[in-house]
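[Solved] Which block belongs to which protein?

Original post:
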Amino acid sequence: MDVLDVATGTGNAALPAVRRGARVTGLDLVPELLDVARERVADLGFEVDWVEGDAEELPFEGASFDRVLSTFGHMFAPRHERAAAELVRVCRPGGAIGFCCWTSDGVGGRLFSTLGSYMPPLPPFASPPSRWGSEDHIRKLLADNVSSLEFERHAITFQDDSPETWVTLMEESAGPLISVRTDLGNEWSALRADLLRVFEEANAADDGSLRFDQEYQLTIARL
């Protein structure tokens, strides 16, 4: 199969796909993350076509892929209608689109709220990323252009040495946080302290380490 991983980041969905024998293309807007993805796939001895590009303007012909994936990536594109239309456009008839997005009522939602409190108001054309975790919102975006929609709720358990080391990892590797840190400049330290508080409050570990569950919604759209 031809598989596209939209907003691939460091390749977390692209790598499992190529291991299963797919011809994989990974696209991301942040070149630093693609550099990490290249190193990861090279270490494993596989080949992936890494492309720098925007989820709202995918640089591919229509009906190019059997599967179109995104794991916590395309949700950060501000124009949801355009991003959704692009996912459908590049997927072949009979193919499927699958994506995971954080829900608004979990740790991910609290993270988005914290980030939003430091950022300028969204422009009229933009929607917050947390809306991709809503079934109603996705139905409005996709129902008219796909044959079926399926939804599942799951949670990922994250663990690290401490809340502090987790926030350090995020600010160095999460594409949206890399962008926010650059935009905020001197204000980043205050936001970082608030992000640390989010994970301290969510922490279920009592030994100084970090362990928390973060809920997400899996959407599968079939063409």
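(Second protein starts here: sequence line, then its structure tokens.)
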Amino acid sequence: MLVAIKRYLNSTPAAASQSLLALHGVNRTYDDGAIIALKSIDLKIEAGECIAIVGASGSGKSTLVNILCGIDNPTSGSVHWEGRPIRKRKHWSRLRRSHIGIVFQDFNLIPTLTAAENVSIALQGGGLSPVHRLMRAAVVLDRVGLEHRMHNLVTRLSGGERQRVALARAIVNEPQIIIADEPTGSLDSATAASVADLLFNLRKNSNTALILVTHNEELAARCDRRVRIKDGVIIEDTGQSGSTRPEEVQATS
């Protein structure tokens, strides 16, 4: 069993009642307000939720993802982790290291490193020795079916295998949230289905919250909740009950 890394922002009774991750009145503009990427975004994510964020290219999905994981900052509004506002880069860095796992469409692996080395990088700064980081990476690569390929350079792996390495890197710290940005977008249909099954199974077995960003409606339908974004505005949120909230229906009319 993986040994959990000490959590940043220790839970308190007050924090336990808060949403895991929440955006309040978030706006994001560029070019001094000429480009509006996100407008008045309110979004709450609870522990263990499975959410699809859907929308066409240019809808604001990527900007929303970047703000959810602290890669970008809102122009106005706030982002909260367990009820606490997160503003500083160092706090976001700690969250990404031990609480938030990210899976990118283009893998974002280091080509000169092996699969195990790519995964072990995510463990740096957690107090483990290089040997123990590699041992832990091996355990996680086994979970995604790649133990036999752990010593291969990632350039020698197929697209599906590289995405499995990316998944292993995202979960090696046992995060509370996995954010997957078009994780099957660059894969053929058969490989995409296999990677999607793996992602949902990993989430189910660990009770980790999953935020799946996709334009694939069939993939989104596998999530319990769907948040639809258009022109930087959330126009639909099925919520946990599976029904669209009335205020969002009115917003689209």
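Accepted answer:
You had them paired correctly. Confirming on the second one: Confidence is low (pLDDT under 50) at residues 1-16, 240-253.
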